[in-house]
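Incident review: delayed structure delivery

Summary: a single-chain prediction request sat in the queue longer than the usual turnaround. Root cause was a stuck worker, restarted by the on-call engineer. No data loss occurred. The affected request and its eventual output are reproduced below so the record is complete for anyone auditing the incident later.

Affected input:
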Amino acid sequence: METNWQHRVDAVWSAADELGDDEVIRRIDALAAERPDGDPVALFERAGARDSAGREAEAEPLYRAALDHGLAGSLRVQAQIQLASTIRNLGRPIESIALLDAVEGEAGDLHDAVVAFRALAYASAGDARRAASDALIALAPHLPRYRVSVAAYAAELAASA
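Output delivered after worker restart:
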């Protein structure tokens, strides 16, 4: 049941561009209704559907409910990242930064996403130097050349921010 349900959720997301925002929300809500009340994964999917539709004010309480109801593992990290992005879009970049800082140590392969969204939050908070520094620090290890130089310049930016 669990695998089939997730496959059906994934199918909605795969067709999201063709379906449009309202239909994605309708279908995700219908699938979520198949799960028990308070199911953290269902709440997370409902939040994501609203978030991707630009309905951040509707998404925020659903992300919080998913986290409060025990969303675990990489989905919890994804929810923290998406909630932080939502909060930034709602005009609260400092709160967004705090959420991202709290999850950074356990982000694993989502670490660069945490850094990217935190850089956006710093930019929204008016700290463009810190935003650029964080983004460059995350980017530097992926460069085939100039890795050391970019990391040094990024550290210099952070020191002067």
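Verification: The first helix runs from residue 2 to 14.
Action items: add queue-age alerting; document worker restart procedure.
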